[in-house]
Amino acid sequence: MSEMNDIQKRERARNTDRSDTKVYLVGGGIASLAAAAFLIRDGGVLGKNITIYEELDRLGGSLDGAGSPEEGYVLRGGRMMESKYLCTYDLFSAVPTLDRSKTVTQEIFEWNEVIKTHSHARLVRDGQPINAPEFGLSEKNILKIEWLIAEPEGLLGRTSIADQMGEEFLQTNFWLMWCTTFAFQPWHSAVEFKRYLVRFTHMVQGFNQLHGIMRTVFNQYDSLVRPLERFLIERNVKFLLKSKVEELVLRKDIDAEGFVEKIIYTAEGKLETVEVRSHDLVIVTLGSMTEASALGSNGTAAVVKSKKDGGSWTLWEKIAASRPEFGKPAVFTDHIDESKWISITTTLYDPDFLELVRSMTGNVPGEGGLVTFADSNWLCSIVIPAQPHFIGQPEDVQVFWGYGLYVDKPGNFVPKPMQDCSGAEIFTEILGHLHISEEQQKSILANSRTIPCMMPFITSQFLRREKGDRPEVLPKGWKNLAFTGQFCEQPDDVVFTVEYSVRSAASAAYGLLDIDRKPPAVYKGQYDPRVLYKAIKGLHDLD
What we know:
By secondary structure, the protein is an alpha/beta fold.
């Protein structure tokens, strides 16, 4: 007899009586929202029995999008997608778009047929765009890449990319494009770099023009979070906003499975306690890459905050104390100088800037993807998305996003470290790299508003780590507790992606409910000879 298909498994799961099972999710980001959807869709859990606790006043976590035309829009980051994000597309295949005309998954694929990423100016040097830059890898560099891909993670340990790849590799265009596309730094984990090389083997050919990169129609909050939030609201999921979970009361007797007994949280200045029954479930999103983010303004710089300015890291520290199976949060929290960078969101009230960029790059908004200024001391990049980028954005207002990796160095045109610069000063630096005249600069700056955002933990998930630093999604020895998000361990997949969070959500939901179902397997193009052939050609600049 053949194995049950997914539809049969879902039906069996739904027919299991879970009418009395309550589920508590800590954190209101995409991992918790996805877990709630999987619990309902595939596990038969009643929406009214699911509660999501969120410290902030809105859902979405790092998938944010806020602001107004008058005050300026804000995106802490943008999320690239690609066709092999199988868990994400599985989730959103059941979620209608806001206009209910199709599913979110259908919308994403249809949109990326309309606007396909094809950069004509992936790099800009001395004000000049470079179309399809060569990778510039030597045979030695390529052999090192091949060796790293084959090397077991356990042998790499806490070594860095620089340790394994060497200075010559870090001077290549391949590294320049790879590190700015994915936000890697030379001191980041060699293990994470290896995983990225493997996970995106199928994208190496054409990477210098960003082929295969996909985007949502609007920003990630409007296109992903809002439809998913409505999906859950319509199923009576409860959201407790401005509710900070302070502690989990845990119990683990000798030779017995541990479990969560209570959830203690603060809401409206009051300490509240929830009793968790033995058959109830708790799913916790560990840490946050956008925790303690701080906004500046067009005229002021953004300040650097710490883990004490939010609740996600401190909660992880509390529950992990004396429990090695819960991971080591200090590995990811105690190195802000190695994980911070600044992003900007610029709201434009005049079309001149976008017209200048379009003329220089040859790409219409939404088509070009990331443009990196190779000469930049800050290693700045910008993205011009399709307009409008926000639902309700006026036709005469445009928005773009950018970021810089080296925030401690003085700029090329503004003699200050990026982290000490106001939004207008950062935009001035970008205009300098585009070789825009002073007269044009004054006009563009006078008709724009740039908001910088300092994120101290934005690449903390890339920091050097080894086995045991991140806990399993289903920690061994615990029966009603699971972890989700960017700081739990999932073999083969890569952090700093929506896919990683959604995969953790599916694994948590199916595992805790003991459903005979697993998330879609990670795509492994490295085992396809056709993919390998194209990747090797690409590495040798033989496209």
